[in-house]
Amino acid sequence: MVGNKGVKIFHKTIPFQLFSIKLGCTLQFKSMQMMKISMFITKYDTIEVTGQTVKLLIEVGFSMDYEQRESSMGMEKVYNESFHKLLRMFTLSILISFIGTLIGTQVPTGLFLPLVVVELIMMFSAFFFRRNKRPIGYLFVYSFTFISGITIYPTIAHYASIGGTSLINTAFILTVVIFGSLSAYAYYSKRDFSFLGGFLMVGLMTLVGFGIVSLFIGGFSGPLGTTIAAGGVLIFSGFILYDISRYRQGLTDENIPLAVLNLYLDFINLFLYLLRFLGISRD
After folding, report:
1. Crossing angle for the helix pair 153-189 and 256-282, nearest 10 degrees?
2. CB-count exposure of residue 275 (10 Å: 0-12, 13-18, 19+)
3. Is pLDDT at 47 greater than 70 in this prediction?
4. Contact call for residues 241 and 190 (beta carbons, < 8 A)
5. By the 8 A CB rule, do 122 and 140 touch?
6. Model pTM?
């Protein structure tokens, strides 16, 4: 802010150091705005007003910028609080699902199919609530994750018989790493991944189609099975980017349960497709 540069008043150059003296106290306590103040002053080549008026304009410009920054920081704080609450509730959903899986070890085989039907009904109900913009409660979400934990136990038991507990642990660790990395990237990069929505829905419908066909032919194996599993990993990785980029902007408390359910489905499906991919590769 020192040197040969100056501000012209009545076509007479006054060294810039004079304004530094006038603004010394302001800059000392609010130095974060120093660059913006200097930009404000150097914007004008000729200011045909008195020195007092120049000082007033500078102070008003600073006050407006400071209040705007305070408002922005306040909004960002609200957004961060709702997003952090979402992550806490999501973590709780994973823990409840894990408890459900432990209980699944004691559930009679004949009960798994009815529980799968209940799980599907709850998923369609959640879709209906979302279409009609009606909120769902935490009781609904955590009941779903608990039932989901029970119903995935047969799948986990099947792959544990193929590769042991090391296969399950590897798939889970990879899921945590991928989910955490993609979430951090989507949050801190501040990129908008909404453009992925259409592609992801097409990919999801394709996976559903393959899933329905596999019910009649006993599943896919070999290169085709590996390709489908890899596709599932990519699709649900994309859903993680898509959902986190939406939720990082903040959401209301009544919408957090549905967001928790979305993130849970992203996580658990990523885990299952990774498990399938590793299981087929090892088999």
Report:
1. 120
2. buried
3. no
4. no
5. yes
6. 0.71
